[in-house]
Design a protein that fits this description.
It is a single chain. The chain is α/β, with parallel strands linked by helices. The chain contains 17 helices and 45 strands. Strands 12, 14, 15, 16, 17, 18, 19 and 20 form an 8-stranded mixed sheet that branches. Strands 5-4-3-6-7-11-8 form a 7-stranded mixed sheet, sandwiched between helices. Helix 1 packs antiparallel against helix 11. The longest helix is centred in the N-terminal third of the chain and has 19 residues, at 92-110. It is globular, with a radius of gyration of 29 Å. The termini are far apart.
Length: 828
């Protein structure tokens, strides 16, 4: 269990313990407790470095954390917001939130910890040079150095090599790890980190976890250091291959569900820098407490706890654990270094777990506003016959004595109404408090590396056992019970009284016409009145100027409509809707992310709306939409005036498609829908009768091979793509109707694109397909598989890897014109 760490120094033996994750209130099972005690005895640390969520080797992480009892952390350069989403429509920052939580869920399973840099996932990159140019090499190197200096690993392991070809983010992560391995030990590098309390650190060695992909066999692997990570752990009831599969399967937004593996699993390592090992990753490195001066009592007390521990009587380990804490507390006063401070805090948590202590602070509601009050109940249960007494509770302002002996399995409930300070900041993820740049998120230096920021409110419970006093700090959470999923926890949040969330991130304003923009105003407090406005630049027109609204209940929402007209010749502009309450204005949006495998996330960000004037002619066609893994294309097309209906599963099964002149298939639909392959014949029959079918990109790779037919004639989808959003685009057949009706497509329509041109292009195709676009990244051969068009009977089939699913939500005018022309290929 991991979380936010607080240190408490008072008289006697008082320590600050782990602030648990929302899912961490439960006491560890006895197998995990045994692992935790062994890990307390081990001072060895490993930092595993890669680029994205899902890049980590969960088999190795699980093995090192549980079999070798090391403290292991995974440093992901990015939060994965530039990837695709198989479970919803969230993209960019919100997808980054999901993947952050998926990583934390994975770490709760495999026993490792999680770290991040500020680097933003801007999509696929073909070179490290491009990646560094976007991220800012020195800025992200500083982040990696800070993580090494603060975590202090003995061994650093990279997932990827420093040599291309590879994803540019992958290559960059390996280069940065190597550079930071040296720079972290140099006091002349990033001295500002030392000024704020950091210390230089030299790890003992840097290793490459030799990639196995791309190899036809095991030839050459005998030249590397080998490690079998497939052992079975009876304490956990599974092999590390099975543990790793459960961990990796938490990456559900990427479709990385994995099957457990039993038997030997070999991993290989190549020394890159530092002391070269011959037989073991930690060869020649003392990982015992003997390495720490004055830690003899720590070691002997923890060994005593290990000998005394029994799975049916975990409390027997308490005398040794309490003695170890006392020794660590004294040692921390002399050597306040990460290994000592962290071990003290982890020992605190182990004491609580051995005593069966359950402590949770639950708010009556999920949200509160600055200056308001919220009732909080603390539940304390000591479930083992250990001598534990409650001493005091700090509700966030000052400790209040509340002495009582905790009886075994008796529930103590304590309540208090907490006042939220009037100057309390909104509970935004620390890396989203300001709009990100193109290459990295903004973050305060002290936050760099953290998965999440601190909770909005915490409570601190001071307890005692004999002469020792200890404190458990817990986040305030809100709890609901779902009739299907059962109990669910989420973070308690501080919100402005009213949030303002545009229903879409942009508004397209075609042909100088007025368009309706909708804003969801949401109350975070009962009985609040607000003035909701949409400020626009001079010369623009918005009606009404503002809405006066009143909410009866917290959580209530109103969708408010504004009519917006752009002046002639206006350029796209970004505006911020505002909510003014009692004379104070705020521009904060509220997005709720609710997926079963991660805690519910309420995400606060600066509210922004992009207004985009454009010239656009629409075909006279009714469009049917077959959703895929999640995109907003249907809504985006509706927003400019096209008639778009979602085709339900029953209509697809029956082939009842005659009401549509065009059908668009969502991204990755053939990868995630089981009903498309059986409906292929019906769809092709509908095309032959005169329909236009536009199939957006699907994937076909070594993990997911697409064998079902997509179009009327064969073509092969590959991983080919163009990652430069500004790459030149050539119209292969400028006379084709696509480029003239109903909108004339020119080079200007390919300006202002975001992240990429397209992905998963066709590599080979039947001669009956006509490629209509040619594009390539710098230094590469031209690609023509981004847009294929074929006549089939009286109709038209289109396969396109053009990333409309990114361009339309970003409000790119040319992408709208091009897609409108595609759906209108069969229109009169």
């Amino acid at each position: 269990m991991k979380g936010w760490w607080t240190l408490s120094m008072t008289s006697s033996l008082v320590f600050g313990a782990v602030v648990h994750e929302a899912e961490g209130a439960e006491v560890m099972h006895t197998g995990a407790q045994q692992v935790a005690i062994e890990r307390l005895l081990n001072t060895g640390r490993v930092l595993y470095v890669a680029a994205h969520p899902d890049d980590e080797n969960t088999r190795l992480l699980g093995y090192l954390a549980n079999a070798k009892h090391l403290q292991v952390a995974y440093l992901s350069m990015t939060r994965g917001g530039g990837g695709q989403n198989l479970i919803g429509s969230e993209q960019a920052a919100l997808l980054g939130v999901i993947r952050t939580q998926e990583l934390l869920a994975a770490r709760r399973i495999d026993g490792a910890e999680q770290r991040f840099t500020r680097a933003r996932d801007f999509g696929y990159s073909k070179t490290a040079e491009e990646t560094f140019a976007t991220w800012g090499h020195d800025a992200i190197l500083a982040d990696v150095v800070w993580v090494i200096r603060s975590f202090r690993p003995d061994v650093v392991i990279t997932r990827f090599t420093e040599s291309p070809p590879n994803h540019g983010h992958h290559t960059a992560s390996a280069i940065l790890a190597h550079e930071a391995f040296e720079a972290a030990a140099d006091p002349k590098r990033f001295p500002e980190q030392l000024e704020r309390g950091g210390q230089t650190w030299r790890a003992q060695r840097l290793l490459l976890n030799v990639p196995r992909w791309g190899r036809d066999d095991d030839d050459g692997l005998d030249a590397y250091l080998a490690l079998d990570v497939g052992a079975y752990d009876p304490r956990l009831g599974q092999s590390y291959g099975e543990l790793a599969a459960a961990s990796r399967s938490m990456h559900k937004s990427q479709g990385f569900g994995s099957a457990g593996v039993r038997g030997p699993i070999w991993e290989y390592f190549e020394p890159i820098a530092g002391r070269r090992p011959d037989k073991d990753l930690f060869e020649g490195i003392d990982t015992s407490w003997r390495r720490i001066r004055g830690a003899t009592k720590v070691r002997t007390s923890l060994e005593r706890a290990r000998r005394a521990y029994r799975s049916d009587r975990p409390e027997d380990a308490l005398p040794g654990l309490l003695a170890a804490f006392a020794a660590l507390d004294r040692l921390a006063a002399k050597q306040p270094v990460p290994r000592v401070l962290d071990a003290r805090d982890r020992t605190a948590e182990m004491i609580a777990d051995a005593a069966g202590l359950y402590v949770r602070a639950v708010a009556e509601r999920a949200e509160a506003t600055p200056g308001s009050s919220v009732a909080v109940e603390i539940e304390i249960v000591k479930r083992r016959p250990a001598k534990i007494a409650l001493e005091s509770i700090d509700w966030g302002d000052s400790p209040e004595p509340d002495k009582k002996v905790l009886e075994t399995n008796a529930v103590q409930r304590l309540e208090k109404t907490l006042r939220i300070p009037t100057d309390a900041a909104p509970s935004s993820p620390y890396w989203l408090t300001a709009p990100p740049g193109s290459g990295r998120y903004e973050a305060a230096p002290e936050r760099v590396g953290e998965p999440e920021g601190p909770p909005a409110r915490t409570v601190r419970i001071v307890l005692s056992s004999g002469a020792s006093r200890f404190a458990l700090t817990r986040p305030v959470v809100h709890v609901t019970t779902d009739r299907v999923l059962g109990e669910r926890e989420r973070r308690f949040l501080i919100l402005p009284p009213v949030t303002v969330t545009p229903l879409a991130a942009h508004a397209m304003l075609p042909n100088g016409e007025a368009r309706t923009v909708r804003i969801t105003a949401r109350a975070a407090v009962d009985g609040v009145a607000a003035r909701i406005a949409l400020p626009v630049p001079k010369g623009w027109k918005v009606t009404p100027a503002a809405h006066e609204v009143r909410f009866v209940k917290a959580g209530a929402e109103q969708v408010l409509a504004f009519s917006v007209t752009a002046p002639k010749g206006a350029e796209p502009t970004v505006v911020r809707p505002t909510a003014t309450v009692a004379g104070r204005a705020s521009s904060i949006r509220y997005d709720l992310i609710d997926h079963n495998h991660i805690p519910v996330q309420a995400v606060l960000q600066v509210a922004e709306l992009r207004l985009v004037p454009l010239q656009l002619r629409l075909p006279s066609v009714r469009v049917g939409y077959l959703p895929g893994s999640g995109d907003t294309v249907a809504d985006d097309l509706r927003s400019v005036g096209l008639e778009v209906e979602e085709i339900d599963a029953e209509s697809l099964r029956r082939g009842a498609l005659e009401r549509y002149g065009a059908i668009v298939i969502g991204v990755r639909a053939f990868n995630v829908r089981r009903d498309l392959a059986p409906a292929h014949d019906a769809l092709m029959k509908w095309v032959a009768a005169g329909g236009t079918l536009v199939a957006q990109y699907n994937t076909s790779n070594r993990w997911t091979t697409l064998t079902d037919p997509v179009g009327p004639f064969p073509f092969q989808i590959d991983r080919e793509r163009v990652t430069d959003e500004n790459a030149p685009v050539t119209l292969v057949d400028p006379a084709h109707r696509l480029f003239s009706s109903p909108n004339v497509i020119t080079a200007a329509d390919f300006t202002g694109w975001v992240q990429e041109r397209g992905l998963y292009f066709a590599k080979t195709w039947d001669e009956r397909y006509r490629p209509l676009l040619e594009m390539n990244d710098a230094g590469e051969a031209p690609l023509r598989g981004a847009l294929l068009v074929a006549k089939h009977g009286k109709g038209t089939f289109v396969y396109t890897g053009v990333s409309f699913f990114r361009q339309l939500p970003a409000g790119v005018p040319g992408a709208y014109r091009l897609l409108v022309n595609l759906v209108g290929l069969g229109a009169p």
